[in-house]
């Protein structure tokens, strides 16, 4: 089916998954809080936490605790 002409401008889409967006953000902001990542990616904090767990479990990200904050290294 064809889309109505005006409707495509209101939709947002991207080539990257939320995991991809999170890892790109962490590359520039290694000391980001989960709240920051969630806001930038446009997801909930719980979803951001799950993504970080996935990335860490698969070896894409290493998390180091520094005081009360986390530091992420790709």
Task: For the structure shown, list the relevant keywords.
74 residues; alpha+beta; two-stranded antiparallel sheet; 3 helices; 43% helix
General description of the model:
This protein is α+β, with helices and mostly antiparallel strands. Helices cover 43% and strands 14% of the residues. It has three helices and two strands. A two-stranded antiparallel sheet has the order 1-2. Helix 1 packs across helix 2, helix 1 packs across helix 3 and helix 2 crosses helix 3. The radius of gyration is 15 Å and the shape is globular. The mean pLDDT is 90.
Could you outline the blueprint of secondary structure elements for this entry?
Elements: H1 18-28, H2 34-41, H3 45-57, E1 62-66, E2 69-73
Antiparallel strand pairs: 1-2
Helix pairs in contact: 1-2, 1-3, 2-3
Molecular shape: globular
Largest sheet: 2 strands, antiparallel
Proportion of helical residues = 40-55%
Rg computed from alpha carbons, rounded to a whole number of angstroms: 15 Å
Order of helices and strands: HHHEE
Low-confidence stretches: none
């Amino acid at each position: 089916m064809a889309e109505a002409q005006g409707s495509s401008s209101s939709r947002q889409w991207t080539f990257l998954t939320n995991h991809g967006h999170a890892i790109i953000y962490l590359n520039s902001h290694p000391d980001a809080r989960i709240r920051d990542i969630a806001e930038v990616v446009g997801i909930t904090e719980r979803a951001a936490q799950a993504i970080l767990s996935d990335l860490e479990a698969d070896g894409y990200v290493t998390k180091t605790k520094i005081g009360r904050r986390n530091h992420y290294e790709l």
